[in-house]
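Sat 14:20. Reprocessing the chain from the morning session after the first attempt stalled halfway. Input below, unchanged.
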Amino acid sequence: MVRRAARVDNRRMNTLAFGGPQAGPEDPLGWIEACHARIEARLSTLARLEAHHAARGADAELARAVEGIVRYFDEAAPHHHADEDLDLFPRLRRHALARGDGRVLAALDEAGSAHGPLEAAWDELRPGLLAIDAARGPDRRAIEAFSSAYRAHMTLESDTILAAARRWLDAGECREIGAAMARRRGIDASGRAVFIYPRT
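Finished this time. Tokens:
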């Protein structure tokens, strides 16, 4: 049973080889939630790097996992932050101001101000991941700090911001947000549901 559990865990290391949650411009809030799910998948893979390195070293499977994580946070995460900062948050702020909802306004302030520090934290974590080799494993403390900050951020967005967005945004606003998100990624906004980002 121990060997079987280990094999399952090793297969889970390479989660980035497959597509993630699907969503498209027609459901921008679902798209943002799916982005969160894909970020969580990368954070979970980050947490498994140390054990994998201890058991197998810097093998090809670990290298593929690191490559997928780096690609995601280099390319996809900035788009996700822009979706919120440029398209979702301003519209939601107008609704919150009109309703006098201080809780949502505070959440928008906190979430918006977190994007810069999260990107800076990634810039600090990235070189250590790329430097992993047979003698040097991942930095557990740096990974835990990065993951903890990202998860707290996503919880705030899911519990307060996206919940308010689903209550307040009308169909026209959602179409505008979805179209902007699609343009940011070079996706035809009139197309069918698509993967949020290319499969890695």
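The first helix runs from residue 2 to 13.
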